[in-house]
TrEMBL record:
Chain residues that bind ATP: 526
Matches recorded under InterPro entries: Bulb-type_lectin_dom, Bulb-type_lectin_dom_sf, G-type_lectin_kinases/EP1-like, Kinase-like_dom_sf, Pan_app, Prot_kinase_dom, Protein_kinase_ATP_BS, S_locus_glycoprot_dom
Location of the Bulb-type lectin domain: 32-153, 156-282
Source species of the chain: Citrus unshiu
Keywords: ATP-binding, Disulfide bond, EGF-like domain, Glycoprotein, Kinase, Lectin, Membrane, Nucleotide-binding, Receptor, Serine/threonine-protein kinase, Signal, Transferase, Transmembrane, Transmembrane helix
Protein name (database record): Receptor-like serine/threonine-protein kinase
Subcellular location(s) per record: Membrane
Catalytic activity annotation: L-seryl-[protein] + ATP = O-phospho-L-seryl-[protein] + ADP + H(+); L-threonyl-[protein] + ATP = O-phospho-L-threonyl-[protein] + ADP + H(+)
Domain Apple span(s) in chain numbering: 340-415
PANTHER family: G-TYPE LECTIN S-RECEPTOR-LIKE SERINE/THREONINE-PROTEIN KINASE SD2-5 (PTHR47976), RECEPTOR-LIKE SERINE_THREONINE-PROTEIN KINASE (PTHR47976:SF7)
GO annotation (BP), single: recognition of pollen
E.C. number: 2.7.11.1
Amino acid sequence: MQRFHFLFKHSIIFFILSSGCLTATAKQRRSNISIGSSLSPIGNSSWRSPSGLYAFGFYPQSNVSGRYYVGVFLAGIPEKTVVWTANRDDPPVSTNDTLLFNSEGSIVLRSSQQSQDSLIADDSQSASSASMLDSGNFVLYDSNGKTLWQTFEHPTDTLLPNQRLSVGTKLFPGISETNPSTGKFLLIMQGDGNLVQYANINPYGTQHAYWASNTYNKGDNVSLNLDENGHLFLMNTTGVNIFNLTGGENPTKGMIYLMKIDSDGIFRLYSYNLRRQNSTWQVVWESTSDRCDPIGFCGFNSFCVLNDQIPDCPCLPGFVQISQGNFTSGCERNYTAEICGNKAIRELKNTKWEDVSYYVLSETTEEKCKQACLEDCNCEAALFKEEECKMQRLPLRFGRRNLRDSSIAFVKVDDATSSSPQAPFSVEGNKKELWKDIVIICLFVAVVILISAVTFGIFIYRYHVGSYRRIPGNGSARYCEDIAPLSFSYAELEKMTDGFKEEVGRGSSGTVYKGAMINGQLVAVKRLEKVLAEGEREFQTEMKVIGRTHHRNLVRLLGYSLEVSKKILVYEYMSNGSLADILFNPEKQPNWVERMGIARDIARGILYLHDECETQIIHCDIKPQNILMDENRCAKISDFGLAKLMKPDQTRTFTGIRGTRGYVAPEWHRNLPITVKADVYSFGVVLLEIICRRRCLDPNLPDDQVILEEWVYQCFENGNLSQLVEDEEVDEKQLERMIKVALWCILDEPSLRPSMKKVLLMLEGTVEIPIPPNPTSFLSAI
Ligand SMILES: *[C@@H]1O[C@H](CO)[C@@H](O)[C@H](O)[C@H]1NC(C)=O
Ligand SMILES: *[C@@H]1O[C@H](CO)[C@@H](O)[C@H](O)[C@H]1NC(C)=O
Ligand SMILES: *[C@@H]1O[C@H](CO)[C@@H](O)[C@H](O)[C@H]1NC(C)=O
Ligand SMILES: *[C@@H]1O[C@H](CO)[C@@H](O)[C@H](O)[C@H]1NC(C)=O
Ligand SMILES: *[C@@H]1O[C@H](CO)[C@@H](O)[C@H](O)[C@H]1NC(C)=O
Ligand SMILES: *[C@@H]1O[C@H](CO)[C@@H](O)[C@H](O)[C@H]1NC(C)=O
Ligand SMILES: *[C@@H]1O[C@H](CO)[C@@H](O)[C@H](O)[C@H]1NC(C)=O
Ligand SMILES: *[C@@H]1O[C@H](CO)[C@@H](O)[C@H](O)[C@H]1NC(C)=O
Ligand SMILES: *[C@@H]1O[C@H](CO)[C@@H](O)[C@H](O)[C@H]1NC(C)=O
Ligand SMILES: *[C@@H]1O[C@H](CO)[C@@H](O)[C@H](O)[C@H]1NC(C)=O
């Protein structure tokens, strides 16, 4: 609660006390501030509301004389309380600065030092009057009395009665009780109806949330409201109260309320009794009573622990506080870390921190976890829980101790008893030689890791999500880059895409926009139209599975957003459009050799999804529009894994609606189980299109050619395949092979179709291809 003591010429409080029906008349009355008015920290320092309860103007920075901020505060009580601050991240101003309602209709701060005025209200239209209302709202009006701008719509850390936190709006606490700059936490009214508190980091995601109203899926326009009796609740578009945070109190004259997110990350409802002498703000309700709950309360390499409800941030063993008495400064090692020096492990029970492990050992024991960390030069600490050992590097953040948590933390420290037989690596034999070897191996590993780290450096550095994972079941130290997709906030995606400006594609599952990441990498941002209405967690798990698929013939998923009701996916950007764009455009058509390369690329991508992923993925929608071409015209499959996220019936119905019937395997229409062979069928159709450079259905062609599959089989039976490629010069043997592969793929009976592995071997020409059977059921197949 930011308060200050400021002597006014006449105390307003008695005036307020005498005006008994303060709240009833509050809305009607307003002061009239006209163009040309000005304020200065000394002299007339604020504009009051008619009742005198609220004021807009200069307020002094706590504990620093001669420094002021501009804001709205409760002026009518001895404990002056700030409820809004302008340009909170700018430095405070000096006594010589003035606030001016200038002739252009803007409220500006005129500095004695700088020539440029700085705007207080970021409105482009010019106002003709302003008013400090008794509700605590400072408003700018145009000449017709229409509201142009109001502090109620640009809250900082406080919500007043009748003020609404509307969808998409955030409250940020101050850094401390005395510093109003944007602090380490945020409260957002999300587009999915959920009111959530996050650690204010960039980008923040679900894993950084520490409080939520759990009103997920209650509509896309839910708002947080506070009424005059201290009733804090969520309301949907139709004005229905959908969730009570507080019940509200019996109306009491002279009682005022406000909701504020404090610098410790907890938001609280306060009350103040105007009628009582020397009253103080009382906490009526708080979002949590556990002051270690806010994620990131403590700095790096320390952890939050409650001492009699008071949070403390002790450093990890072997670490010292960077700046004494400053929680946020974090801790650092009190020695210069030596790679692979003589180390020991310290144990912290019930303690954990953010999981950004580079290495996970599963089905292990505490003892093995300790040993593994000791033996790995990169391991600075490990978290052990439920037979999993997660190894991490520094810094460790969001640490906390919680007796309800069974995690055990192991922290590597210098071994004070290095000569003792308990020291690590106490192996029989020539210890010194072994030691030397270990150092060499460690250095080698460190160099390898350094090189990979540099490759992915920007990524890792920016987002702290880089991690390496050992491939389980493979004894050798095989590392594999594993950069999990990032969770973006909606605001970030808006920024990345410049407000979803440049649309580059539109498909059945959503619209795609072009964007760029902070590091300049171009991305395609896809807004999904239809997604499972199930929990975020499921979606996120799925995203992680899909995000872990890495193959040169799959479009990489870089991130996603869960913040709004519509899910958003971020992919790498493919500059050459889709296969459909080049294949069906006579000016861009690739030649035969290129086309065969494309067919093999697609087959490899599908093979990976079917056989080589952690979980088998059936694409369900292989078609030229979903195959994208990068700048080297290398084909990559996109939208894979989307099928897993969609409801099964959705997948089915939208394939029907879309008019891509030609690619759909017959089992879809027969209510048979869908297997990987459905993708094989679709691939066969795409392969025919690649060979013939035309769509599978083309009503503009002569009757017998409209359905590509039928026509191809006719030509195949008549031994007249060259008709299919018209005047293109093509190796006849190769053409026949390709046609045969495609005809095998599009057989009606799923079990007769070859596996993708077989298909690839056939395309590569390494196996004999038998004559395909007569697919007489073509007509029923499409
Ligand atoms: C505010 O004052 C201006 C002139 O000073 C006047 O024209 C205007 O009508 C007043 N507005 C209100 C709401 O009193
Ligand atoms: C303060 O404002 C009043 C009118 O509101 C004016 O009469 C007075 O001169 C002003 N004082 C200073 C120091 O500007
Ligand atoms: C501000 O000053 C008050 C006394 O005037 C003191 O109790 C408080 O600790 C100070 N706060 C800071 C952050 O210096
Ligand atoms: C304010 O102005 C006066 C006179 O112009 C000057 O003496 C003083 O140093 C200035 N104060 C600040 C904080 O700039
Ligand atoms: C608002 O909530 C009520 C009650 O839950 C519900 O009947 C109504 O459909 C909701 N309105 C919207 C727009 O979601
Ligand atoms: C959102 O809901 C509020 C009421 O809670 C309503 O006043 C406002 O018009 C709604 N906005 C939209 C865009 O529907
Ligand atoms: C919220 O509380 C009010 C009484 O203050 C009650 O009438 C209403 O039904 C409650 N709404 C919900 C959603 O619990
Ligand atoms: C309230 O003020 C009275 C004197 O006016 C004083 O005796 C009393 O201790 C004060 N109460 C509190 C809680 O500060
Ligand atoms: C590091 O800290 C530990 C415990 O806090 C202490 O025993 C040790 O002497 C310190 N080492 C150095 C080099 O300061
Ligand atoms: C605490 O440390 C942080 C980070 O080092 C710094 O930004 C902040 O100003 C410090 N706060 C105080 C009160 O010293």
